[in-house]
From TrEMBL:
Residues that span the membrane, as ranges: none
An example molecular function term from Gene Ontology annotations: catechol oxidase activity
Cellular localization per UniProt: Plastid, Chloroplast thylakoid lumen
Classification lineage: Eukaryota, Viridiplantae, Streptophyta, Embryophyta, Tracheophyta
Domain of life of the source: Eukaryota
Catalytic activities: 2 catechol + O2 = 2 1,2-benzoquinone + 2 H2O
Stated name of the protein: catechol oxidase
Occurrences of domain Tyrosinase copper-binding (ranges): 105-122, 262-273
E.C. number(s) listed in UniProt: 1.10.3.1
Keywords annotated in UniProt: Chloroplast, Copper, Disulfide bond, Metal-binding, Oxidoreductase, Plastid, Thioether bond, Thylakoid, Transit peptide
Disulfide bond found in the keyword field: yes
Cofactor(s) the record lists: Cu(2+)
Similarity annotation: Belongs to the tyrosinase family.
Amino acid sequence: APIPIPNLKSCGKALKEGSIEVDYSCCPPTPAEWNNIPYYKFPPMSKLRRRPRAQQEYIAKYQLATRRMMDLNEKDPRSFKQQANIHCAYCNGAYKFGDDVLQVHFNWLFFPFHRWYLYFYERILGKLIDDPTFALPYWNWDHPDGMRLPPMFDRRNTSLYDPRRNSHVRNGTIIDFRFGGDEEVSTDVEQTVTNNLTSVYRAMITNAACPLQFFGGRYLLGTNNTKDAGTIEKMPHTPVHMLSVARLWRMDMGNFYSAGLDPVFYSHHANVDRMWNIWKGLGGKKRDIKEEDWLNSEFFFYDEDEKPYRVRVGDCLDTRKMGYDYAPADIPWINCRP
Ligand code: C2O
């Protein structure tokens, strides 16, 4: 059976790696009608939101919107802290089905969960600056121009800056997708760019010839599958997280419960989401999963008006229907067959 929305009434303690408890509650405010959450319907839209590259200009709006989100009362489900807590609740064991914890990583829920998550995040930001076309910038690390932390995130004393980041991603340092967490990072720029492009080629093409390889393994109610990550999730998604954090503490980007506390998380995931669109466009067997258990899996989110909704995986397959797409950018990895 598909994964249903979690029981909102029984949201509990979240655990960091190992068995250490997160010392605050990750649970969203419980909606009054918690056992009768309506299905989400796409609101009418006038113009597509077009997500731009994060290396480009676009800074002022994004900074301002993020600042306003950070200034909301922490109890507001749209506040920055509550938005980060969504990732904690869905990935650190706050929700359970019987003895199994809900986990949206390492299985086929990875892409659709993060797509819906960003969808509402973007709408909330747009609402806070009164711009219904606001679109989240994407960190295009699949292009040599994007293999550095976009400068807008590296400016101290702005809402997009996170002081807990690692020097591995600061001051224009090239990011290395082979990074596992502890080793020194390579400084040979040319070699690193080539390796990175080859990694993307593998994750998008060689190793992702059919849907379950790309999306990750089946995850059905009662199966507790949390070891079958898809190709992009494994690399570059996870190394980019690990590169972004302080080596010892693994704070913010290095841990599920805290990743959403770094504003770059959302731009990183926008590119992960863009990879889904590009992969489907490559043709052949590269298409969405057709199994009902995937299509009918559900998540819970608050929208930009603080209204609670349930959403289906099957309703997030076409980003244009959802009201957004991506500004095109070159994909040089397509020529980087190993
Ligand atoms: Cu939910 Cu990048 O992880």
